[in-house]
Design a protein that fits this description.
- The protein is an alpha/beta fold.
- It has one domain (2-247): NAD(P)-binding Rossmann-like Domain (Rossmann fold), CATH 3.40.50.
- The chain has helices at residues 8-19, 31-41, 57-68, 92-120, 141-160, 180-184, 199-211, 222-233, 236-247, and strands at residues 2-3, 24-28, 47-51, 74-77, 123-128, 166-171, 217-218.
- The protein has a four-stranded parallel sheet.
- Helix 4 (92-120) links the parallel strand 4 and strand 5 (123-128).
- Helix 1 crosses helix 7 (199-211), helix 3 (57-68) runs parallel beside helix 4 (92-120) and helix 4 packs parallel to helix 5.
- The chain is globular, with a radius of gyration of 17 Å.
């Protein structure tokens, strides 16, 4: 199962999983895009479509119910969104939506998937986090806060699941050109001009690591590893100011 499968990293995960022979459950809000993706993937694997808005109680509940039925061996919690700007100018509804889609939904869906996986003695859960999880990000403050929470949750869950046969990965990509930038309003920002990876490279690297049983937190690019090193060992205020500089509207 891949959430947010209609574009970007989620679509890349769906294509890569299909290429490796996985049958798929594609989750997103936009039926037309999921149907088009299903046709493109073709008949080599089975694809089911589940239309759900993970910003709503009903949407999260419908996906959780499907996971609780079992049969899902690999869950990619990819759906996410962000908005650039000052918190004081942010619509409270956007703050609630970001918190629900980026943090609450993957927490609930990870829980729903975990019990059947543990019963079977195998499974994989990949939570798509962000490089923004490692330090506060002015002008992307709510997004970064939700991703920091998701990173903490995923690492803790990985320890709880140790010895069960279920591998849990926090995938922390950096600058990945997708439709996210246009929705978030970061397109054309200084951050948008930093070194980037393609969605397909991110999905391939993540799956290679997860299926190989390699590290729980996977940082696919050398530039991203260097960035995390700086974020962890620079004074926190310096890392925060650099992040804010990259995101501040010009």
């Amino acid at each position: 199962m891949v959430t947010g499968a209609s574009s970007g990293i989620g679509e890349a995960f769906a294509r890569e999983l299909a290429a490796r022979g996985f049958d798929l459950i594609l989750v997103a809000r936009r039926r037309d895009r999921l149907e088009a993706l299903s046709v493109e993937i073709g008949a080599a694997v089975s694809t089911d479509i589940l239309i759900a808005d993970l910003g709503s109680d009903d949407g999260v509940a419908s996906v959780a119910r499907r996971l609780e039925l079992g049969g899902v061996s690999f869950l990619v919690n990819n759906a996410g969104l962000g908005y650039r700007g000052r918190v004081v100018d942010e619509d409270p509804a956007n703050i609630r939506q970001l918190t629900r889609v980026n943090l609450e939904a993957p927490m609930v869906l990870s829980r729903a998937a975990l019990r059947p996986m543990i019963s079977r003695g195998s499974g994989h859960i990949v939570n798509v986090v962000s490089m923004g999880a490692f330090q506060p990000v002015p002008y992307l403050a709510v997004y970064a806060a939700t991703k920091a929470g998701l990173l903490s949750f995923t690492e803790a869950l990985a320890d709880e699941a140790a010895g069960t046969g279920v591998l849990i990965q926090a995938l922390c990509p950096g600058n990945i050109p997708t439709g996210f930038q246009e929705v978030a309003g970061t397109k054309g920002s200084r951050f948008d001009r930093t070194p980037a990876m393609s969605p397909s490279d991110v999905a391939r690297s993540s799956l290679d690591a997860a299926l190989g049983g390699r590290p729980t937190v996977h940082l696919p690019a050398l530039a991203d590893r260097l960035s995390v090193f700086g974020q962890r060992f620079l004074p926190r205020g310096v890392a925060r100011r650099i992040a804010g500089h990259l995101m501040k509207p010009e």
